[in-house]
Amino acid sequence: MNLFEINGLHAHYGKSHILHGINMAIPEASIVSLLGRNGSGRSTLMKTIMGLVPPTAGSVQLVGQELAGQRPYDICRSGIGYVPEERLVFPNLTVEENLMMGVQKAYSDVPQWTVDEMYNYFPRLKERRDINAGYLSGGEQQMLTMCRSLLGNPRLLLIDEPTEGLAPKIVEVVMEVILDIARRGVAVVLVEQKLTIALKVADEVHVMGHGELVFKGTPKALADDPDIRRRWLEVA
Ligand SMILES: Nc1ncnc2c1ncn2[C@@H]1O[C@H](COP(=O)(O)OP(=O)(O)OP(=O)(O)O)[C@@H](O)[C@H]1O
Ligand SMILES: [Mg+2]
User: How far is the CA of 85 from the centre of ligand 1 (A)?
Assistant: First the structure.
């Protein structure tokens, strides 16, 4: 059985039909890069998985448990972590308090992450642990959001454009953290605009176009397929 499966998932914003029957299967400990042009529906897919956008049809299953139609809070409790595009920190809480807000008890089959591990990944957060998160730079808030989600000990982590606006050195660290997450058995769906990064970390690449998955394959298969890249990824 796959860790995570989506079948025939549809979503609308009002009358606009955005997701058109998405099917996806993700094994444990694998990294899927979700690619596509602006507006292709990548963030909507993540929001629909999380229940923030209600699915209008289809199923979303984590270890065989149906999540479609459940509330975001319960979906998160079931073991899906979400790092949205918009950095969502609690501005009036300190860095460390923000991290503590994310802590959820681990399932027995899920690795337990600790605040100290987060500080080891991002020493900058440790230096600023007693500062209110509202004072952090955008990049630091990004790191904080990602660490807070990880402390929820998810089985599957959805990360939407984590390297956007980060300095190249920090981008490297974020990539290492993502690889580490998968090494510890957690599956990752990554929306990443930088193609080289997306291809480097992924076990599998899914390309979205107009709310459908138009390509699934290995990073090498995509690298070897200029037609798909031209049609669905590169800016004309
Ligand atoms: N809250 C909303 N209400 C109505 N339409 C929306 C809303 N959010 C997104 N859309 C539309 O849904 C489509 C998919 O948007 P989505 O944000 O999922 O794309 P994306 O692939 O994440 O692209 P990017 O992050 O580059 O904008 C777009 O046409 C967008 O305009
Ligand atoms: Mg998006």
Answer: 12
Pocket test for ligand 1, best of 10, 13, 47, 195 (most atoms within 8 A of CB): 13
- Residues 5 and 22 sit within 8 Å (Cβ to Cβ): no
* Residues 119, 123: Cα–Cα separation, whole Å: 5
Structural domains in the chain, CATH included, are 4-232 (3.40.50.300)
Q: How far is the CA of 125 from the centre of ligand 1 (A)?
A: 31
Please tell me the predicted confidence (pLDDT) of residue 235: 66
Percent of the chain with pLDDT over 70: 99
**Average pLDDT of the residues in 95-124:** 91
Q: Which ligand is nearest to the CA of 37?
A: 1
pLDDT value at 89 more than 80: yes
- Whole-number pLDDT of residue 177: 94
Shortest-distance atom of ligand 1 to CA 208: 21
Type of residue at 54: P
Cα(112) to ligand 1 centroid in Å equals 34
> Where are the extended beta strands (E) located within the chain?
4-13, 16-26, 31-36, 55-62, 65-66, 80-83, 156-160, 187-191, 204-209, 212-217
Give the closest ligand to the alpha carbon of residue 41: 1
If you take atom 5 of ligand 1, which residue's CA is the nearest one?
Answer: 13
What's the pLDDT at 23?
Answer: 98
Cα distances from 158 to residues 102, 169, 189, 234, in angstroms, run: 15, 22, 5, 24
What pLDDT is recorded for position 70?
A: 96
Residue 236 has pLDDT above 70, yes or no: no
